[in-house]
UniProtKB/TrEMBL annotation:
Upper lineage: Bacteria, Pseudomonadati, Bacteroidota, Flavobacteriia, Flavobacteriales
Protein name: UDP-N-acetylmuramoyl-tripeptide--D-alanyl-D-alanine ligase
Signal peptide, first to last residue: none
Domain Mur ligase central: 96-275
Role this protein plays: Involved in cell wall formation. Catalyzes the final step in the synthesis of UDP-N-acetylmuramoyl-pentapeptide, the precursor of murein.
Length: 425
């Protein structure tokens, strides 16, 4: 079966599923493979559960009814999504970066949705499977698609650009993320810049932070570039007014007060404003989109519980985002400030150095109490409260509850699941 023929079937049944636990009526099930599973083994179950068809790459399974046999299910999913992306008229904005991708994606979507029919990556489904699924969510009436692209190795962004074929692009920043895969900060810059390379090669517009010297140098020769800056009048001016705790900014004499904490979210808001202006939104629409956006999923959430003022930023962490979170926490007001820091993953040989650096930084900021959780932080050289596992932390908090009315920062990598601390307060 050709991709064109499969696409005709998809147009009749425009729902795709890759998990038999989430089958929806009349969807198409794609039997993907993983390290510990083979979707072909569940294709029959998918059809029995309501899928109209199952795309498989096992000839024996394909003998059953409603099976579509292909050479490689994953490659077929990717090819189908690229075909569908070009079949539809939606403009695609590609988005990557070390930190803030998902928040920036959601802010851009919140702004553009005030005027346009917009779809965007769900959650952080931004890899070689998530990007195709996002593209296949585009409808005939979709005007703009905001596609988040993640990577932890070189050439991954290049590959995803080949699927999504973005019309525009934005890189949030270049930070110390996935150093195990990229090898160094230089590797991070090279990998994330693959989005720039695609846009430059195809003469597509680039949005960028003109106050970031790395971004500025990378696209110096580009003609179709649109930047924002706090001070440089050559670019669109947006001023940071305050961030205690919520980011407040000023643009064209209009004040926008977000529901996002931390200076590090200023640039995320700026990107949404800049892109909104490019797509001809007026500032009232932009202001509405940003001010109505409420962060969720453990990303820079402010929570009040049992008299405590809590900043929950436990969705993910790397040295760059950890440093930004600590610097922001230092600036906000609070009489008794407690920090809970969980291990940062995917740092490879740099793990020991980076965890020591973050613990030293936290000590220098002189918080009332600092708690380090995880095997990497446990080996750092200091006299802080250290817990090799979450269970050890749990026992400590049960034995010695924290003081009332504390201001608390919770920050760590996803695998640490530090949101569990909320249940202990």
């Amino acid at each position: 079966m050709t991709i064109e023929q499969l696409h005709q079937i998809f147009l009749q049944y425009p729902q795709v599923c890759t998990d038999t636990r989430k089958i929806t009526p009349n969807c198409i099930f794609f039997a993907l493979k993983g390290e510990n599973f083979n979707g072909n083994d569940y294709a029959s179950q998918a059809v029995e559960s309501g899928a109209s068809f199952a795309v498989v790459d096992n000839a024996e399974v394909a003998k059953e009814n409603k099976m579509i046999l292909v050479n490689d299910v994953l490659k077929t999913l990717q090819s189908l999504s690229r075909f569908h992306r070009n079949y539809c008229k939606a403009k695609v904005i590609g988005l990557t970066g070390s930190n803030g991708k998902t928040t920036t994606k959601e802010l851009i979507t919140a702004v553009l949705s005030t005027k346009y029919k917009t779809v965007a990556t769900k959650g952080n489904l931004n890899n070689h499977i998530g990007v195709p699924l996002t593209l296949l969510s585009i409808k005939n009436d979709t005007e703009i698609a905001v596609v988040e692209m993640g990577a932890n190795h070189l050439k991954e962004i290049e590959f995803l650009c080949g699927i999504a074929e973005p019309d525009y692009g934005y890189i949030t920043n270049f930070g110390k993320a996935h150093l195990e895969g990229f090898g160094s900060e230089e590797g991070v810059i090279k990998a994330k810049s693959e989005l720039y390379n695609y846009l430059i090669d195809n003469n597509k517009p680039i949005f960028f932070n003109a106050d970031d010297p790395i971004q500025r140098s990378k696209i110096e020769p580009v003609i179709k570039k649109y930047g924002y800056s706090q001070d440089n009048s050559q670019y669109y001016n947006i001023k940071l007014v305050d961030a205690d705790p919520f980011v407040k900014l000023e643009v064209e004499d209009i004040t926008i007060t977000s529901q996002l904490i931390g200076r590090y979210n200023f640039s995320n808001c700026c990107a949404a404003i800049l892109i909104g202006k490019y797509f001809s939104l007026d500032l009232k629409e932009i202001k509405q989109g940003i001010e109505n956006y409420i962060p969720q999923n453990n990303r820079s959430q402010i929570i009040h519980k049992n008299g405590h003022h809590i900043i929950l930023d436990a969705y993910n962490a790397n040295p760059t985002s950890m440093k930004a979170a600590l610097e922001n926490f230092k600036e906000i007001s609070g009489d008794y400030k407690i920090v809970f820091l969980g291990d940062m993953f995917e740092l490879g040989s740099l793990a020991e150095k980076e965890h020591q650096y973050i613990s030293d930084l936290a000590i220098a900021m002189d918080f009332s109490e600092i708690n380090l959780i995880g095997e990497n932080f446990f080996t750092t050289n200091n006299t802080l409260k250290k817990f090799k596992s979450f269970d050890e932390l749990r026992q400590s908090l049960q034995d010695t509850p924290i003081p009332q009315s504390a201001t608390i920062l919770i920050k760590g990598s996803r695998g640490m699941a530090l949101e569990r601390i909320l249940d202990l307060l």
